[in-house]
Amino acid sequence: MKIIDFRFRPNTREVIDGIKNSSMFKATCEAINFDRRVPQLLPEIVADMEKRGVELAVITGRDCEVTYGFPANNGSVLEFVRAYPKKFIGFWGIDPHKGMKAVYEIVHAVESDGMRGIAVDPYLAHIPPHEARYYPLYSKCCELKIPVFITTAPPPQVPRAVMDYVDPRHVDIVARDFPELTIIMSHGGYPFVNEAIFACMRNANVYMDLSEYELAPMADVYVQALNSAIGDKVVFASAHPFVEQEEAIRIYNNLKLKDDVRRKVMYDNARRILGLAGETRSEGREGGRPILSPELPLPYLPFIPTSGRMN
């Protein structure tokens, strides 16, 4: 089975040290014994990906310099993508507090550095994703036809991070204000499981990954929804190196998913989002598909407003 990993960071020594020493994740790393992660050289990492059948991996950057005083890691994303352009796809980390500088940064990252999307972290920015400071970023993404990765489900022990910043109901507002924008919620919007599922169901331009929460309490609801309603809206992501990629693949192999749904999650959906299957990267108004099935009949289509915000 071919695989695209939609949330992956190579476990080089620099990445491991950067995560465990960051002001955001130091306490989290201590709690989960992150020191046990074994660093590798980049060629070794790529070779292991090949053995696992991983065709591509999306590497997301992170910029929360204003709120946490920790430098962005986008330089490493660019380094990895340049080293293995056929194996890695880069999403540039953006800090919404940086205003127009962040907008110009998106343009440069896409047009000069070949990035294929952006990543934002509302729980680290301390403002929800529908706050005004994000909207120039989303507008530029629409113009450039690139997706945005919105981190949801804050990990434990991150200083000053609160769950309200990542409520999928905020993402729902963004999806209605920007129907041309392809949005991927990471970590399944956990613990707002039902809200995340319904955000994907009712918005044709919203997707998610379930990384780190596939076996959490209430995760059976994700599986039920995948098999009945949102098989086209979820992508596989390992969250490596927080979760070993090999272990993440094993988890998905053991989930009680229909065969065609498993194929979509592990490969097909990511290809569509990334524009690798002869389709546009931005779903836009043509991206809606009926959410209708014998298992879960619903009397509506994913709704995309023609103008303005509509409820």
CATH topology annotation:
TIM Barrel
Strand order of the largest sheet: 1-2-3-4-5-6-7-8
The global form is globular
Number of strands: 8
Number of domains: 1
What ranges have pLDDT less than 50 throughout 5 or more consecutive residues?
A: 279-311
CATH homologous superfamily title: Metal-dependent hydrolases
Average pLDDT metric: 90
Which helices and strands, and how do they pair?
Blueprint: E1 3-5, H1 13-20, H2 26-31, H3 42-52, E2 54-60, H4 65-68, H5 74-83, E3 88-93, H6 100-111, E4 117-120, H7 122-125, H8 135-144, E5 148-151, H9 168-177, E6 183-186, H10 193-202, E7 206-209, H11 219-228, E8 234-235, H12 245-254, H13 259-273
Parallel strand pairs: 1-2, 2-3, 3-4, 4-5, 5-6, 6-7, 7-8
Helix pairs in contact: 6-8
Main traits of this protein?
311 residues; alpha/beta; TIM Barrel; eight-stranded parallel beta sheet; 39% helix; disordered C terminus
Written overview of the protein:
This protein has 311 residues and is α/β, with parallel strands linked by helices. It has a single domain (3-286), classed as TIM Barrel (Alpha-Beta Barrel). The chain is built from 13 helices and eight strands. It has helices at 13-20, 26-31, 42-52, 65-68, 74-83, 100-111, 122-125, 135-144, 168-177, 193-202, 219-228, 245-254, 259-273, and strands spanning 3-5, 54-60, 88-93, 117-120, 148-151, 183-186, 206-209, 234-235. An eight-stranded parallel beta sheet has the order 1-2-3-4-5-6-7-8. Helix 6 (100-111) packs parallel to helix 8. The longest helix has 15 residues, at 259-273. The chain is globular. The N and C termini lie far apart (40 Å). The model is unreliable at 279-311 (pLDDT under 50).
